[in-house]
């Protein structure tokens, strides 16, 4: 058994998961658009925390679109690569901004909102640069390991291909 076989699903299971994603993701997009609307048009929501929620919502919308597309674009390698890069970036950005919302809330509740606001530059640095670093590492590993395109069929959508199974874990879970 090789690394890529250790987490394989049968075709009916994958098809069921894809169907569930195609039902759930439009609801996620709709709810995230609600967050965008609230922050844009309700003055009391236009805070640093609100902006972090907007960043998180944007990341979740992009990931949801990727999950809706699924593997239907695998035959178009360039498009799959672009979607895979965006998926990697925004999947990690979603984790980063979720963490930052929690950090901001923690600092606000335990200390003071002005203290939480002082770190606005650090929130942006972490939230936007860590996913970028993850994406750069992904292509660096591709260049070093040379097992083919790092972006490909990851069962549900275009993301890290089966040739790099450990890369999925290394690039995604540490940022959680």
UniProtKB/TrEMBL annotation:
Membrane topology per record: Multi-pass membrane protein
UniProt KW keywords: Membrane, Transmembrane, Transmembrane helix
Localization per record: Membrane
Record bears the keyword Membrane: yes
Transmembrane segments: 20-42, 54-74, 89-111, 123-145
GO molecular function: G protein-coupled receptor activity
Cellular component per GO, a single term: plasma membrane
InterPro entries: GPCR_2-like_7TM, GPCR_2_secretin-like
G-protein coupled receptors family 2 profile domain residues: 17-176
GO biological-process terms attached to the record: adenylate cyclase-activating G protein-coupled receptor signaling pathway; cell surface receptor signaling pathway
Domain of life: Eukaryota
Designated name of the protein: G-protein coupled receptors family 2 profile 2 domain-containing protein
Source species of the chain: Rhizoclosmatium globosum
Lineage: Eukaryota, Fungi, Fungi incertae sedis, Chytridiomycota, Chytridiomycota incertae sedis
């Amino acid at each position: 058994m090789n690394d890529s076989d250790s987490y394989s699903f049968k075709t009916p299971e994958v098809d069921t998961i894809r169907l569930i994603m195609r039902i759930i993701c439009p609801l996620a997009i709709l709810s995230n658009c609600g967050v965008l609307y609230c922050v844009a048009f309700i003055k009391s929501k236009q805070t640093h925390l609100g902006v972090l929620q907007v960043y998180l919502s944007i990341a979740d919308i992009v990931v949801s679109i990727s999950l809706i597309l699924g593997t239907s674009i695998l035959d178009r390698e360039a498009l799959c690569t672009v979607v895979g890069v965006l998926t990697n970036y925004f999947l990690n950005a979603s984790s980063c901004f979720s963490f930052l919302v929690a950090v901001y809330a923690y600092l606000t509740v335990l200390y003071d909102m002005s203290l939480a606001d002082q770190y606005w530059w650090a929130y942006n640095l972490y939230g936007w640069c860590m996913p970028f670093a993850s994406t750069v590492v992904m292509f660096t590993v591709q260049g070093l390991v040379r097992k083919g395109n790092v972006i490909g069929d990851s069962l549900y959508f275009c993301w890290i291909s089966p040739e790099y199974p450990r890369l999925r874990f290394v690039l995604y879970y540490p940022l959680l």
